[in-house]
Every structure is written in structure tokens, then in C-alpha cells.
Write a structure and sequence with these properties.
By secondary structure, the protein is an alpha+beta fold. It has helices at 79-91, 151-171, and strands at 15-19, 22-26, 33-34, 39-48, 51-57, 66-67, 70-72, 93-106, 114-126, 134-141. The strands form 2 sheets. Strands 4, 5, 6, 7, 8, 9 and 10 form a 7-stranded mixed beta sheet that branches. Strands 1-2-3 form a 3-stranded antiparallel beta sheet, with no helix packed on it. It starts with 14 loop residues before the first strand and ends with a helix. The chain binds zinc ion (ZN).
Length: 172
């Protein structure tokens, strides 16, 4: 991941300082500190008839693997607005949110660490069609998912599968 080498405020070369065990880069001239924080993202888990809505990534990282529709929160957006917008851009369908499903950290995105706010949602309209940075879109059986990108998405979907299997066992 990229780290500033020069002060974005006054162009002075930044100097490495260790503070409380964390590596920081500070400007010796104006005092600017380059804090590194995970970027927030938002997405939606849509389940219909035990099938999960997924999109195939058109771009790197993890191009060709599948994810729940999600993306970076824009500065002026609320997390729920991002979630709804990303679903519409990537899958063509409109969703209404039904609450938060999970909040999970992501440490395997080469663009930088993120924190995802994942909502549950249901479809209210639109037509399923891949768009934006999705190459394909589709519903997949919870117990037969394609290759998933990102550890956090694997964790969340893996847990969903376990819950589905144990509830199906309970029905017998
Ligand atoms: Zn500076």
C-alpha cells in the first residue's frame, strides 16, 4: 500500500516516528501526521430462496472471483446509501435494507485495509444485469458457492453456509 513520502500540505519530506508502537510519518516543518486508517466500505447480503446474490469481479484485485455487491463509502455518503447504490450499480436491482448483518475488517486487499458494513437487504425492483465493475451477476445456492474473494467475505458466507446446513439438519 502507498504511503506518503512528502507532506501533502507543505511538501516537506516526511520523517518516520514510532508512536505507541505504531509507525507514523510526520512532517518536521508543519506538524502534519500521516495517520493510516482502514477505509470504510458497505455492501449488502441478499438471500432469496436460500440463494445469495453475488457479482463476479471485473477488475483486480481478485479479478474473476465472486463477492457480495459492495464498495467504498464516498465522503458525503452514509453507509446505507453506499450499500444501496453499489447493489444498483453492480447488479441492476434496487434493494431495501433490513438491518446490519455484520461488521468485519479486511486485511487482504492490496489497495489497503478496510472495514465493511454489511447490511441484509431484499430486492424491490429493477432487472438483474451486471454493470459497473461486475463482469457477471447471479444467485448461488448457499451450500454451493463459487470462488469467493477476500477473507472477510469467505468468513461471512462460510458462517451463513454452516447456519443453513445446521437448520436444514434440524428439519429432518
Ligand atoms: Zn508539512
Amino acid at each position: 500500500m502507498n504511503i506518503y513520502k512528502f507532506c501533502p500540505l507543505c511538501k516537506e519530506k516526511l520523517v518516520e516516528k514510532i508512536e505507541g508502537g505504531y509507525q507514523r510519518f510526520k512532517c518536521p516543518q508543519c506538524g502534519f501526521v500521516h495517520y493510516r486508517n482502514p477505509a470504510p466500505t458497505a455492501g449488502v447480503l441478499v438471500v432469496e430462496n436460500n440463494r445469495v446474490l453475488l457479482v463476479k469481479r471485473r477488475f483486480e484485485p481478485y479479478r474473476g472471483l465472486w463477492v457480495m455487491p459492495s464498495g467504498y463509502i464516498e465522503y458525503e455518503e452514509s453507509a446505507s446509501e453506499t450499500a444501496v447504490r453499489e447493489v444498483e450499480e453492480e447488479t441492476g436491482v434496487c434493494v431495501e435494507l433490513d438491518g446490519i448483518h455484520a461488521i468485519e475488517s479486511c486485511f487482504d486487499d492490496p489497495r489497503g485495509n478496510t472495514v465493511m458494513i454489511l447490511y441484509r437487504g431484499h430486492i424491490t425492483g429493477g432487472n438483474l444485469e451486471a454493470g459497473d465493475d461486475a463482469e457477471e451477476v447471479g444467485f448461488f445456492a448457499i451450500n454451493n458457492l463459487p470462488d469467493i474473494a477476500f477473507d472477510l467475505q469467505k468468513r461471512i458466507l462460510g458462517k451463513l453456509k454452516e447456519e443453513y446446513i445446521s437448520s436444514a439438519d434440524g428439519d429432518n
